[in-house]
Amino acid sequence: MAQTRDVVELILQDHRKMEDLFRQMRSVEADRASALREFSDLLIAHALAEEAKVYPALKRYNKIDDDEVEHGEEEHEEGNKALLELLEVDEVGSEEWDEKLEELVQAVTHHADEEERTILNGARENVAMERREELGEAFMEERERQLKSGCGSVDNVRQIVGS
Fold this sequence. Notes:
Low-confidence stretches: none
Distance between the termini: 34 Å
Number of helices: 6
Shape: elongated
Structural class: mainly alpha
Strand content: under 5%
Radius of gyration: 16 Å
């Protein structure tokens, strides 16, 4: 993927990567367990970085709806719960696993679609590129920090969902 520091483009890149991982998790020819581990790390790191570095900054802009930002945080919680349910399924590829995967896909896809239409378009229209690049660097630093911490482990996801 192209190197960019624009927070909007960085978030979009993560969304496209998540879609690729969904395809892998659905494919009987792929290493579905490995794709789930990668997805889990990415989803948690992405959401925590947005909530720590991006959402609070965007709330300061008049034309970006605070309710949309707060709704985004609520949808992160829904995605985290759906992720935990999938992580707790014993057998990859079982009927239960496929069912929980589809619930996760639905929660995350719904959130990404809404976020792209509301929050990210609002940021494109109202936030100067220089500020978006500053936010992008902060987002990436926090995201990398989370990834290095093993943020997508089932124990950590349980802790996040429980808090």
